[in-house]
């Protein structure tokens, strides 16, 4: 009897181990949820493994808890999942939408004063020197106005990047991705909020991947270091 139990255990052990090291699911179109996305790409960003969905939208990929999975298809927005367990999951990808016109309208509404001229600017005046004086040609005039416009555009772009960061790196998005709860959430956001320079250097910026990497770094910190030092100096008694 003992031998039979041991043999049975040896037979089911590989299956058990396999089940604990893969992530399975199905991938569909979000608008038509009966439409399976055959050929959709499933990539484990942690261990770099790659898989494709079959004709029924079913996929299997090597993974473990804590891995980050990216699901993509031409013409669809990328969906990223942080694995808190290995239960099978249905994923619905949204079709990509072109928002170029919306961006142009937003820019115009943010700065209604961009087309105003500097009241102190003077009309351009061309100075044309003769050949004997070196043939130098100078153009004077709206230099200050142009520099001011460039500064305004730079400030607008900076504000737009900050708004994008706030919309993608906040308590709601982090809770949804990581199931992160508790008082440490606000400290985490303060410590790891991406900078405008980081977001500008990588377009489009993958907020889900960045958030998961930041969370792993956060977990490695001692509890005493999971908070930015206060900028306020302690009061001293005189």
Give short descriptive properties of this protein.
about 240 residues, 9 strands, 4-stranded antiparallel β-sheet, 3-stranded mixed β-sheet, alpha+beta, 7 helices, flat, single chain
How would you describe this structure to a colleague?
The protein has 238 residues and is of the alpha+beta class. It is flat and about 60 Å long. The protein has helices spanning 2-19, 100-110, 143-168, 171-178, 184-192, 196-201, 207-220, and strands spanning 22-29, 41-44, 50-52, 58-62, 68-72, 79-82, 89-93, 125-128, 137-140. The strands form three sheets. A four-stranded antiparallel beta sheet has the order 3-2-5-6, covered by helices on one side. A three-stranded mixed beta sheet has the order 4-1-7, with no helix packed on it. It has a two-stranded antiparallel sheet with strand order 8-9. It has seven helices and nine strands, in the order H-E-E-E-E-E-E-E-H-E-E-H-H-H-H-H. It is 39% helix and 18% strand.
